[in-house]
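Summary for the steering committee. The consortium agreed at its last meeting that each partner would contribute one worked example illustrating the joint modelling workflow. Our contribution is presented below. We chose a case with several input lines so that the handling of multiple components could be demonstrated. No manual editing was applied between input and output; the record is shown as generated.
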Amino acid sequence: MADQIEWVALSVFIFFFALVTVMGFFAARWKSGPVSEHLDEWGLGGRQFGTWITWFLVGGDFYTAYTVIAVPALVYAVGAYGFFALPYTIIVYPFVFAVMPMLWKQAHANGHVTAADVVQGNYNSRGLELAVAVTGMVATMPYIALQLIGMGVVIKAMGLTGELPIVAAFIILALYTYSSGLRAPALIAFVKDIIQGHHDLYRGAGGGRGGAGQARRLWRGVFGGQ
Amino acid sequence: MWMLLLVPFIGLLWVPFYNFTEPSLFGFPFFYWYQLAWVPISSLLVWLVYRSRTPDEAP
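What follows is the complete predicted structure of the assembly.
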């Protein structure tokens, strides 16, 4: 890791961080409905995200620091074992295609907000509802931890040290999510997906200073060539 | 038609199916390009199922 502060990287980071923060707080007013206190507004963006916004939102939430940093690092470290990520990402799509529309229909027809609401509506069991809600929260924790590790790596690579930058970044993120609900990640997903797409194309084409060389070294590491 | 959605599960979850180096493609061992090949194949299968269902069918 670099000890000196990388000013170019840091400026780019600060620019996008500021942009995303402003958008995050602004998102509260984006497509806002008449009754802003209702949980539908905060948790589901007022149930008015269409196909395109949902597509960007899913893209932004599916391909994250986990995809960009954690999995490549794992593949680089242990090789083929890291490829577990590929089959499981592939089989998720047929599963989601078969199951999620049913879930959506029920939730839409009965006004459910969370998966726990759907379970409560179907089975009328508080115990099962609680189990689903708790599982959801507990299962999210390792994922959040991975995001934090990814964020930490990025911040360190820019030459910033200590825990303070990541704490500050996370507090800002938590604040605008608290104030805007699902609208914040949905709006930010547009920025995220565009950067991600650019990154993929750029790296794929071997662009950037040392980009091709790094990619080659990475693949050598993966495939055990020279 | 819905059975098509199970094909990726069969093709990917049984590692002995593809735990080989040969035949390689553009220098990629079979193990890697076989798994990557399932990305477009799965999309195609989902698209076929999507096309086949009647618009009102609860998917």
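Chain B has a mean pLDDT of 83. Residues 2-52 of chain B form one domain.
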